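Q: What does the assembled structure look like for these inputs?
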Amino acid sequence: MLWTEKYSPQTMKDVLGNKKAIEEIENWLENWDHGEPQKCLLLVGPPGTGKTTLAHLVAQQFSDHIELNASDKRSYDIIMNTIGEASASVSLFGQGGLKLIILDEVDGLHGNEDRGGIRAINKIIKEGHHPMIMMANDLYSKRIQGLKSKCQLIKIRKVHTNSIVALLKKICVKEGVDFEEHVLRTLAKRSRGDLRSAINDLQVIAQGKDSITSDDLKAIAEKDDINNIFDSVRTVLKSKNPRRIKDSLRLEADPGFILEQITENIPREYEKAEEIEKAYNAVAEADVYLGRAFHTRHYGYWKYTYDLMGVGVALAKDETYKKFSRYASSTFYSKLSKNRAKRDLRDRVATKMGAKMHTSRKVAIEYFPYFEIMFQGDELAQDLADYFDLEDAEVKQFRSRKIKKQKPKKATKAKTTSKTKTTNPKTTKSTKNPSSKRPSETAVTENDPVVNTDSSFKKASKTNDSETPITPKDPKTSTKTKKGKISKSAESKDKSDSKSDSEKSESKEKGKQTSLFSFQ
Ligand SMILES: Nc1ncnc2c1ncn2[C@@H]1O[C@H](COP(=O)(O)OP(=O)(O)OP(=O)(O)O)[C@@H](O)[C@H]1O
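A:
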């Protein structure tokens, strides 16, 4: 149950603040009681200050009452019927049988929407035969300017922080919740005179707990910049007053973020499937305009976004729900931050692979599903990881299991490194780890995962191996690569490799490219 209802004042004396206003209302009631028809009461004040509460307390003094919302079109039919009914049945409205009409949110009234309804209200106001209380938030709203002169205007003011703290204390004691006074004071101050908001906040942090501390406040404080958003979301989902909803959506926050918060909380508030469907349709349309604004940079489209996600969602419900709903922050954003690590890994891996494959990161990502399959076998996975220079953590992009360490391949080593091992350790190294060079520069081995291992390729790989050492005959190359120093081992290797040179030229003659990655 909502604590605002559970702890709602039971008598006029329980109502906090606004003593003068309460006195005026009591006089009005007394006059009706004495059979003197009174002007319609118009209670105007900020949200959560007790207007509806006062109207309900007044209603207890009448034999019956009906409560309607001015922004609800059906309300006017009901008023018309009630008045018609009243003229037919005097007993309902006769002395001792007065039926009070409570009309909420009259600043949300639409002049042209239902002329019959407006006529009915005017009739009640003019004749003054029927007790009626109207409520509005905005004293300066154009919509109530005409009503102000015809009604008895009563201003309801914000409730003082001390009074709010006192009420919060009382609630904590009744709920058996231990509290630190400053926590309640902070809640009261945050509410800015809105008792409903203060009680709701207390319920959020205290319900089901033995005590509340500053830590609980921290949770609220952390959300401070989105607190206003939650208030707005609450207004959208709880109210049907277009003007109030539009006002509440005047926020600093990004409209996309507000839309996410509203979307997340629709099913937490609305209960009927049709209402949820209608609300999501409004959200979908709002999203279309959001996208349009983004793509065209014509931010005028935002006004449609705001109207659809605000008024559109609000009017999707048949009636407002009088229940406590615990709203939550959109999971979209928390998921987004949770996935950040995943996205970073994906991008890192794609960058490395793209560089090797001479593709953009985006294209590399498109190949990921194929690599996922290729990474299943340990041997190929190891080769791919070496080739693309992927660390263990990066291999996780493609497989959850670690790659089992491979036993060194004796046969391959014998074939490819026996000659070079003693003469040029650099070449040997590059044979073991091809990933340290671009495919064109690398001594390709049978282990190279991307290269097919047909016999022509094996030949090419041998040729490549022997060609890696720098020949002294080519001073340009040797100077460039070895910075002027040609090592003894390189020299001896060069001699022994004079045979390789002839093999190389032979290979060149045979064909320019012997496999996918063996460029000459
Ligand atoms: N002056 C008050 N004294 C005690 N409790 C109050 C007072 N004002 C508000 N409350 C608490 O807040 C709840 C909501 O108040 P209420 O609906 O009367 O506000 P309101 O002014 O009609 O707001 P709105 O303009 O948004 O309709 C009440 O049920 C009650 O628990």
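The longest strand covers residues 64-69.
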